[in-house]
Amino acid sequence: MAQTFTGKVALVTGAARGIGAGVARGFVRGGGRVALVGLEPELLEALSDELGDAAAWWEADVRDGAAVKAAVDAAADHFGRLDVVLANAGIASYGTVRQIDDEAFARVVDINVNGVFRTLKHTTPHLVASRGYALVVASQASFTPLAGLASYNASKAGAESLAMAYKQEVAHLGIDVGVCHPSWIDTDIVRNAEKDLPTFRDIRQKLPWPANGTTSVEECVDLILQGFAKRKGRVYVPKNVVVSNWTKSFVNSPVAWPVLKRMAGRAVPGMEREVEALGRFHHAHVPESKAAE
User: What tens digit of pLDDT does each residue of 184-243 get?
Assistant: First the structure.
């Protein structure tokens, strides 16, 4: 990636930690500059200080359209342009459909789908000017629904569909659009879920290849940066996640249903008991903005 992004400016949402922070570091190593957008201002400031003049940060909750627009426009004004956008902000919640509370479900959808919409909407004028590239972080979950993760599955399938529709809408404007599909990445979200819910950990281990592996943040970041450089339409993390896209019709077919039914019947009651005992319906790490408190 050496000097691949010289002269380019990227805007990354969910930039305070994990994949977003890793991509920001890699983009700067590649010669680019980066606008860090997200919550957790202390972490954003520390990352910006680490990256020096090549980075600047803005606190914005993707649930707030006005805040997103203000951050995007300020970033474009600060750097003079936006060439690449990574719509990365996302969360997950615990609990089955009958169990999860309305607010927790709605929050996942608002961040993972509506937040992507707000990010794309308000960066579009700047991407038109640069004939830029947007990459939406969806998930392998876009292809493979899993009991107990209905809010996350629904939101990531929605994010994929939103990105693909947007891709058609802006193609004539010179904007390229991609969708990123990470599998299980070694981040706070996955680690906390496995710690909180032993049943979830057991289900993950029993899933068929390629849905049962864990990928490092470093590999995920590297593949995303390759996606930026080549303006890819799909970024699979790891690359074998493409198999889940190819086989999604079979996995969701009547042929596979008896196996899924049997697996879910064994796992769901235990998972629901664990969530009830935990006493909350979200992951341990859910960033908050001061405005939302």
Answer: 777 766 767 666 666 766 666 666 655 666 788 999 999 999 999 999 999 999 999 999
Question: Are 12 and 37 contacting, i.e. CB atoms less than 8 angstroms apart?
Answer: yes
pLDDT tens column, 41-72: 999 999 999 999 999 999 999 999 999 999 99
Q: How far is CA 268 from the centre of its chain?
A: 25
Catalytic residue among 94, 152, 166, 236: 152
Look up 166 and say whether it is catalytic: no
